[in-house]
Amino acid sequence: MARVFDISPLKINGQTVPMAVRVDARAKRLILRMDNHGKLTVTCPGDRYVDAAIQMARSRTGWIADRLAELPEPAHLRPGVAVPVLGKERMITFSPSIQTGVVTPDSVSVPAAVDNVGDVVVSTLAKELKRYCRNCADHWQDSLGVQYSRVRVRDMKTRWGSCTARGDLTFNTRLVFAPPQVLDYVILHEMCHLRFLDHSPEFWSLVENHCQDYLVQEAWLKSEGRSLFRYGAVGDVSLPPKRTSVTELPPPG
Ligand SMILES: [Zn+2]
């Protein structure tokens, strides 16, 4: 089992970069990663490689500076901020007349009396996404001749969606900020898994039959997907995907 511990942060161009070491016997080499928070993790195969791993990480200042420059600007979910929700910019607003958060055609309204606004916005958006995914899944059920058992949305770290053999579909809450054609593709992708629980040529041809430009959506997720992680509650741009930037080096000597 892997063991992770924090070490003292690096200073790169005056910026403090938090850092952790991960010791994992299955690692074949030293691996340096940065997540969307800008936290570095260096992985090594055993305790005796820890010093070498830290040294390697410290020597990669150019790579680290490049990754820092690429980090998405965090956008806090609070009143006055406009966010793309299911393909439409909507302003987060306080509304004194409502009890629970609600998504309208041009706003995400939250009750004025809450003090955890960000969390309320997050849960309101999750509910809206779930509703959207369920409608879309209902539609595909008929045209694909499949049946799902339930739809869930969760803030997942490494996946956009998943489908179990029992027909449980799970979608990443971050998709609420994605262009609708990307979201629609992810839903279709998971629905097609109800027919083929693999990535066989049969699976992909079923996907392509119903979404001719699925490669465009896949490409968007690869190149732009990380930008969906910039939105977060105040003080928390939550749950970035773990393996955003990876550099692999030769095995330690
Ligand atoms: Zn898949």
UniProtKB/TrEMBL annotation:
Residues 28-223 form the YgjP-like metallopeptidase domain. Pfam families: YgjP-like (PF01863). CDD domains: M48_yhfN_like (cd07344). This is Zinc metallopeptidase-like protein. It comes from Parvularcula bermudensis (strain ATCC BAA-594 / HTCC2503 / KCTC 12087).
